[in-house]
User: Which sequence fits this backbone?
């Protein structure tokens, strides 16, 4: 009868579907305009102004766009790390040195991802970051993040915690994805800042 029990995990699944359905209706122009606004807002963050190393990710499809921001950070001389998905869903990292440093990688039945094509730095490379940009589908008023459900970033957050690293955790979202409350589980950790096209919000 487990399918009737509900609980945070099934609540999360339903919510994920709902947020993804809204994203899937966005046009290319919507995504492009939002990406430009997100980059502008994010680049004003003191955390990113002072960062030497930023762990980020390459947005795909209708995800809130990151490539404008990646290029701006790289142009500032920031060391930008990007993830490469490992077979067990953990993340390895490589440096971003501009558009030419990305390769399209197809992961089984999952979506194709743009990953760093250069030398792999190992899963622990993320612990050197001053700021970690986390993908997500929503954040609530406490800073709890609804992830995509693959578990990759749960591992990243656990690795940061175990290593004693304390980077700023930042999520880029659309305005409608900052909500009152998302379901949480014991291992979920709040983020520090959410950036949307219309502004930024901090959580203590």
Assistant:
């Amino acid at each position: 009868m487990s399918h009737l029990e509900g609980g945070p995990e099934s609540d999360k699944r339903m919510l994920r579907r709902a947020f993804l359905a809204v994203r899937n209706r966005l046009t290319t122009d919507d995504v492009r305009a939002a990406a430009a606004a997100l980059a502008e807002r994010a680049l004003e963050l003191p955390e990113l102004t002072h960062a030497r190393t930023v762990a980020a990710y390459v947005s795909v499809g209708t995800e809130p766009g990151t490539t404008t921001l990646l290029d701006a950070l790289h142009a500032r001389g920031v060391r930008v790390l990007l993830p490469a998905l490992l077979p067990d869903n953990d993340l390895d990292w490589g440096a971003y040195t501009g558009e030419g440093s990305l390769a399209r990688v197809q992961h089984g039945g999952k979506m194709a991802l743009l990953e760093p094509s250069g030398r792999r730095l190992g899963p622990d490379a993320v612990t050197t970051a001053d700021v970690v940009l986390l993908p997500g589908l929503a954040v609530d008023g406490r800073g709890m993040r609804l992830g995509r459900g693959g578990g990759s970033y749960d591992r990243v957050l656990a690795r940061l915690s175990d290593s004693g690293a304390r980077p700023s955790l930042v999520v880029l979202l659309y305005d409608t994805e900052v909500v009152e409350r998302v379901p949480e589980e014991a291992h979920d950790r709040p983020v520090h800042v959410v950036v949307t096209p219309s502004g930024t919000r901090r959580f203590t």
Notes: The CA atoms of residues 138 and 176 lie 8 Å apart. Residues 8-23 form the longest helix (16 residues). The radius of gyration is 16 Å. The first strand starts at residue 53 and ends at 55.
